[in-house]
């Protein structure tokens, strides 16, 4: 399938990770922080893929990519039944919000930008005020009541809710399989990513202003349904059915998953860790995807309308980052696998170029010099400061089982 947008340096790093894996003996690749699976996709299908992430969205994506029984969904069938059921929800929500829908469509292609700016604030206020009423009357109005006028336009939010309604009803009626329902939800996430009024992630939406209103309007004009159809038609699993049947997907805190792993049931050849490197909790960058998958009507808090109870990574906490690295490296050392860690030189862990190899040396037989790669890291759309900053991305590699002499030489000189 076409990939979700990789954040930061993921795409270029993934190619390096894939090349380094080729120097190792055959065996599974365990990705502890799989996210949208940039690393796993770079290795597959040359190796079996074991994925883990604390986010339900990531688990759903990696299950689709690496565990699906079918190579791709029946896009035409899914689209037809989802639309048939979804139109009921869409028509009802449009009638319920008819005046606002008409006004949004009138302003969207107009030139009165001041009116459009005011209207977005009005929609946010109105849907918030009517949230309890709408949620009492409709089973599928989550995006309408929480994100209309912020990340999405009102019509777009109604369309997203109706796609979800159609997919849920089609599954309930037995017209699509659970796998196809999963693909439909992932296509919905792709649609949200394409139309969202944000900066490439969901830490916050762009508040309409005279300086950005053209950008906001351009996003608002996208049809959520058309974007969903396009994404659904591009959905593909990785590899073939036989290869996918031997993959694994875990869901939990990376350290706890690693510490509780039963190595008697198999071990990976390579464990790859790409932990968070700032004190920003990454769950806020994907919270709309998480809500789209769970569809659980969470509290929407703060300027970014974040989910309540989001996962908090210990790698993003100053007081816990060093002990988190120590626990992760110790648990990986017991597996017999090689451990590969990508982490910038200016991450939250101080003096990482020295500390990480020292930790690795306590639990692994061979620790190679870090591979240092100059990069420009995105500042993730922050409103202040530079959009990108120069950093050194480092790849740390520790080996437990001796590799062939030529492979080891290749690694040392790569």
Task: Give an overview in words.
- With 414 residues, the chain is of the alpha/beta class.
- It has two domains: 10-70 and 241-276 and 314-412, Rossmann fold (3-Layer(aba) Sandwich), CATH 3.40.50.150; 75-234, no CATH class.
- It has helices at residues 10-21, 38-43, 56-67, 75-96, 98-108, 113-129, 131-137, 142-146, 154-172, 178-195, 213-220, 224-234, 241-244, 254-259, 287-294, 321-333, 352-361, 405-412; strands at 29-31, 49-53, 248-251, 270-273, 300-301, 306-307, 338-344, 366-367, 371-378, 388-399.
- The strands form two sheets. Strands 1, 2, 3, 4, 7, 8, 9 and 10 form an eight-stranded mixed beta sheet that branches.
- The longest helix is centred in the N-terminal third of the chain and has 22 residues, at 75-96.
Characteristic terms for this protein:
2 domains, 18 helices, Rossmann fold, two-stranded antiparallel sheet, alpha/beta, eight-stranded mixed beta sheet, single chain, 414 residues, 48% helix, 12% strand
């Amino acid at each position: 399938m076409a990939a979700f947008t990789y954040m930061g340096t993921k795409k270029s790093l993934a190619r390096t990770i894939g090349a380094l894996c080729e120097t190792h003996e055959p065996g599974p690749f365990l990705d502890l922080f799989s996210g949208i699976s940039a690393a796993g996709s770079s290795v597959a299908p040359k190796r079996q893929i074991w994925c883990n992430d604390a986010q339900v969205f990531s688990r759903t994506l990696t299950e689709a990519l690496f565990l699906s029984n079918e190579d791709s969904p029946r896009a035409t069938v899914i689209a037809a039944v989802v639309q048939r059921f979804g139109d009921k929800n869409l028509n009802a929500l449009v009638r319920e919000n008819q005046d606002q829908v008409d006004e949004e469509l009138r302003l969207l292609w107009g030139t009165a930008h001041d009116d459009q700016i005011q209207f977005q604030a009005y929609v946010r206020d109105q849907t918030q005020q009517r949230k309890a009423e709408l949620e009492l009357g409709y089973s599928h109005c989550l995006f309408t009541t929480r994100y209309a006028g912020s990340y999405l336009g009102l019509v777009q939010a109604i369309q997203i809710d109706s796609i979800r309604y159609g997919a849920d009803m089609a599954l309930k009626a037995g017209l699509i399989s659970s796998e196809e329902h999963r693909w439909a939800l992932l296509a919905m996430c792709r649609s949200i990513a394409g139309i969202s009024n944000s900066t490439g992630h969901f830490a916050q939406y762009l508040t309409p202003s005279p300086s950005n209103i053209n950008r906001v309007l351009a996003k608002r004009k996208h049809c959520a349904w058309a974007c969903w159809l396009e994404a659904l038609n591009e959905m593909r699993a990785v590899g073939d059915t036989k290869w996918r049947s031997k993959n694994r997907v875990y869901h939990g805190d990376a350290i706890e998953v690693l510490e509780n792993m039963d190595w008697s049931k198999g071990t990976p050849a390579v464990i790859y860790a790409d932990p968070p490197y700032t004190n920003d909790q990454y769950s806020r960058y994907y919270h709309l995807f998480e809500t789209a998958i769970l569809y659980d009507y969470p509290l929407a808090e703060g300027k970014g309308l974040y989910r309540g109870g989001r996962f908090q990574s210990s790698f993003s906490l100053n007081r816990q980052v060093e002990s988190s690295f120590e626990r992760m490296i110790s648990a990986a050392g017991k597996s017999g696998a090689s451990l590969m860690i990508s982490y910038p030189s200016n991450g939250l862990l101080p003096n990482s170029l020295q500390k990480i190899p020292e930790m690795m040396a306590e639990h692994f037989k061979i620790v190679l010099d870090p591979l240092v790669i100059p990069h420009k890291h995105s500042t993730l759309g922050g409103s202040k400061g530079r959009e990108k900053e120069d950093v050194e991305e480092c790849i740390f590699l520790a080996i437990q089982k001796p590799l062939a002499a030529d492979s080891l030489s290749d690694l040392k000189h790569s």
